Amino acid sequence: MNTPRERVLSYWQAANARDWQAFAELLAEQIVYEVPQTRERVRGRANYVEFNRTWPGQWRADIQQLVADDQQAVSVIAFHVDGTAETGISVFEFDGDGRVARITDHWPAPYAPPARACDCIERY
């Protein structure tokens, strides 16, 4: 696989394109996604793809900054949805095969999670 920087670029490109097959191929089978602010957690590749696939509204993520080393990466995005934009900070960790194994998302602006069409979210 490519460098962590290239993997994160591919991750956001696949997400924006709604190419869920390419998106899934970047993820470890046992990926864990967490949002400390809202205490949301999603476990597993299929659940995480569904979580993103069913996000409400017409959204797009524009990378504002991307910092990476050999084992992890951090992206700062402008997340556009329904005429608004929010800043998102994502910390990516990778497994031994170079797939995304863990993502911790931080959203500086306070918000309540939107109503969701999937039941794959747990609270911690």
The low-pLDDT segments are: none
| Cα-to-Cα separation, first versus last residue | 33 Å
As for the CATH topology, it is Nuclear Transport Factor 2, Chain: A
Over the alpha carbons, how many angstroms does the gyration radius reach? Answer: 13 Å
Per CATH, the class reads Alpha Beta
Total count of domains? 1
**What is the H-and-E element order?**
HHEEHEEEEE
Give your account of this protein's structure.
This protein is an alpha+beta fold. The chain has a single domain (4-123), classed as Nuclear Transport Factor 2, Chain: A, CATH 3.10.450. It contains three helices and seven strands; from the N terminus they run H-H-E-E-H-E-E-E-E-E. Strands 3-4-5-6-1-2-7 form a seven-stranded mixed beta sheet. The longest helix is centred in the first third of the chain and has 14 residues, at 4-17. It starts with a helix and ends with a strand.
Features:
3 helices, Nuclear Transport Factor 2, Chain: A, 124 residues, alpha+beta, seven-stranded mixed sheet, 7 strands
List the SSEs and their pairings:
Layout: H1 4-17, H2 20-25, E1 27-35, E2 40-43, H3 45-53, E3 59-68, E4 72-81, E5 84-94, E6 100-106, E7 122-123
Parallel strand pairs: 1-6
Antiparallel strand pairs: 1-2, 2-7, 3-4, 4-5, 5-6
Compact overview of the structure:
Helix content is 23%, strand content 43%.
